[in-house]
Amino acid sequence: MSEEVKPADPPETEEVQWFYLGIRRDAKKKKQYIWYDLAGIPNDGNALVYDEKRALWYDGLTCPGLPGTICKVRRKVGTTSVFLKSAVPVGMWSNRDDVLRWQTENRAREMEHDRTSKTMRACRENLVLKVLEPIRRAYHAASNHKQQTYILAQVIEYIQSYRPPKDVEQED
């Protein structure tokens, strides 16, 4: 006799209404999408009284709209687990001042992150390659293989003939 294995029942799900506050960076600089739980909050045009306990940080639940967009989101009942591609826009937060502030803050944060990322990338560029670039151009500008070989030989000889000045200490 074999026991019949029943598939697990799918988890109970519910649709909730959240609105999108924008993108933030966590302590590790990872992009997080910030949502706000609207349960019991009327969208009547009054300014939002922000409560940190209602803010929800997700790294994969993206919004198909701008900050201030209200979305229906499917989640598992009794948990914080959400279906990542489930956010469907259903409207906008009615208070225009709130929406404008969230959109402006979000854009400023993204611009700052982009600027910082570009600066960090520039710092990581290999400075040795920048110094060698003129030699590379000269090598490729040489008219034949013999001249290219001569350029390489000069570079190798120059590097190998280096002798540190006597007043500079060397590490062992």
Structural class, please? alpha+beta
SSE order, one letter for each helix or strand = EEEEEHHH
Number of domains: 2
Distance between the termini: 75 Å
Question: Which strand order do you get reading across the main beta sheet?
Answer: 3-2-1-4-5
In this structure, how is the largest beta sheet organized? 5 strands, antiparallel
Mean pLDDT: 83
List the total number of helices: 3
Tell me how many strands there are. Answer: 5
Round the Cα radius of gyration to an integer and report it. 30 Å
- What is the share of helical residues? 25-40%
| Overall geometric form | elongated
Describe the protein's architecture and organization:
The protein has 172 residues and is of the alpha+beta class. It folds into 2 domains: 13-123, no CATH class; 127-160. The chain has helices at 96-124, 127-141, 145-160; strands spanning 13-25, 31-37, 55-58, 69-76, 88-92. A 5-stranded antiparallel beta sheet has the order 3-2-1-4-5. Helix 2 runs antiparallel to helix 3. The longest helix is centred in the middle third of the chain and has 29 residues, at 96-124. It is elongated. The mean pLDDT is 83.
